[in-house]
Amino acid sequence: MIFLILLLTLTVTSPSTLAARKAKRQNDFWGSWGEWGECSRSCGGGISLRQRPCYSRRTDGGSSCIGPAESYRSCNIQDCPEGSRDFRAEQCAEFDGTEFQGKKYKWLPYYG
Question: Which residues form the signal peptide (predicted)?
């Protein structure tokens, strides 16, 4: 008798639980992937990014989209021309002339 009641309880609650889970999954869905962004480097290997939005009908501000919102890929993997400035040197040069503690500096990469 107890087994029969337990079985009926499981049978009655399982469909509603499954329906609730299915409804929750249907409320959140991914939009289409956007275009690939600009490559981070012109040569020597860079990274490009694309994103996709998660659309949610939930009212609590959360979302249940499964999977990543961002995707990355390698780009411009060809070697840089000989004599090109090193990538670290390029990064440092962006701060040349920027004031730091009241003085302006020429920044050089550190290869420790």
Answer: 1-19
Domain chopping of the chain, boundaries: 27-81, 82-111
* Topology of the domain covering 27-81: TSP-1 type 1 repeat (2.20.100)
The pLDDT profile of the chain, 112 residues, written as one tens digit per residue, is 444 444 444 445 455 665 555 555 557 899 999 999 999 988 989 999 999 999 988 777 777 899 999 999 999 999 999 988 888 888 888 899 899 899 999 988 888 8
